[in-house]
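Me: I'm a chemist; would you kindly supply a protein sequence with its structure tokens?

Assistant:
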Amino acid sequence: MSLEENGDGEFEEFKTPDDVKKDLMICLKEELRSKFKSHDIPRNEKGYFTMEFLVDMHALIYKYKMAGHDMIGDAYFKERINILKLAEAEAVSADTAKSNELMQMYQQKLKNSDHRQLDYVDDLTNNIFDYFNIITKEYYLNIDRVQTDTDYTDMLKDAYKKIDEDEKKE
């Protein structure tokens, strides 16, 4: 948690991007436990992941990727604004060295925010793979099998559309 001035000379707490990521991962794990009671992957008669499972897994990734993008983006924005306010306050108090240090920190956070967003997506995927003990090679073998199947792509598009519609309602 960090503090942010609310405009009245008082400070209020806001979550750092790392706190937001942790909260999202906790929600993801809770949803995995409620949606998939077992860590076993549903497989078809040939031993491949079922299309329904792959759609459910990709829908979860998409859902948390979209929510995370907005929530983490807001947290990064608040963090950068807070740094700018602190730099401004230091400049006013004639501590230019501290103000310059804070401005360099701001520039670094601005430059790294896209990279840190990508790290979140990797963490998200890794958490899902870990939950089911999926090996990356096994995943790609299964996804290669279905990615050209029109039934699979239609199911996935429908799942994404439903997530987008649910997001618009909120």
